[in-house]
Amino acid sequence: MSLKAAATAVRENAHAPYSNFKVGAAIRSASGQIYVGCNVENVAYPEGTCAEAGAIAAMVAAGETELAEVYVIADSPAPVPPCGGCRQKLKEFGAGGVKVTMGTTDGAERETTIGDLLPGAFDAGHMERS
Ligand code: THU
Q1: Residues 6+ apart with CB under 8 A from 80
Q2: d(Cα 59, Cα 129) in Å, to the nearest integer?
Q3: How far apart are CA 71 and CA 44, in angstroms?
Q4: Looking at the domain assignment, is residue 126 inside a domain?
Q5: Within-domain flag for 129
Q6: Once rounded to an integer, what is the mean pLDDT over residues 71-82?
Q7: Which residue among 72, 75, 83, 86 is best mutated to probe the pocket of ligand 1, counting the most ligand atoms within 8 A of its Cβ?
Q8: How far is CA 15 from the centre of its chain?
Q9: Is 94 domain-assigned?
Q10: Within 6 Å (CB) of ligand 1, which residues are found?
Q11: Could you give the number of structural domains in the chain?
């Protein structure tokens, strides 16, 4: 199955009664396995989680920690980029060159990379003292 098809399918399972904005994410890990996630909202709004976070959690729960490719899809007028928090989450598990494709249910797509989504990212080096 393609990443786009996987993201499109899991988007249907999103729990988004508050925003009515369903998002699906699919990631391919270094092993080639596909993991999926959807946004899961909560009546206590800040407790909601993004689609990307769900897909990353599924990958890590399966014992993998290396992203190879990412696809995110929503029913939006233009491809929606991952939120700031998800950019940091993607950066935790993916090199700067990892491709991130943002798609709409209308078929529009925009491609970027983890590095371009989060320039100047905070990383472990910033916690080191020389
Ligand atoms: N959302 C995601 O799941 N991923 C994104 O990249 C952007 C936003 C979700 C969070 C919330 O459930 C809804 O979209 C509206 O912000």
Answers
A1: 23, 72, 74, 102, 104
A2: 32
A3: 27
A4: no
A5: no
A6: 96
A7: 83
A8: 16
A9: yes
A10: 16, 19, 21, 23, 39, 41, 48, 50-52, 72, 80, 82-83, 86
A11: 1
Question: In DSSP terms, which residues pair with 28 in a beta bridge?
Answer: 34, 69
Q: Whose CA is nearest to atom 6 of ligand 1?
A: 82
How far, in Å, is the centroid of ligand 1 from the Cα of 32? 25
Residues 41, 49: Cα–Cα separation, whole Å:
6
Instruction: Give me the residue label for tokens 């983890």.
Output: 114
Question: At 113, is the secondary structure helix, strand, or coil?
Answer: strand
| Helix, strand, or coil (residue 105) | coil
Q: Are 48 and 41 in contact (CB under 8 A)?
A: yes
**pLDDT, tens digit, 9 for 90 and up, residues 19-73:** 999 999 999 999 999 999 999 999 999 999 999 999 999 999 999 999 999 999 9
Q: Which helix (H) or strand (E) holds 23?
A: strand 23-29
Q: Residue 123 falls within a domain, yes or no?
A: no
Q: Domain limits at 82?
A: 3-118
Indicate which CATH number applies to the domain containing 41: 3.40.140.10
Determine which residue's CA is closest to atom 14 belonging to ligand 1. Answer: 21
- Please give the positions annotated as active site: 52
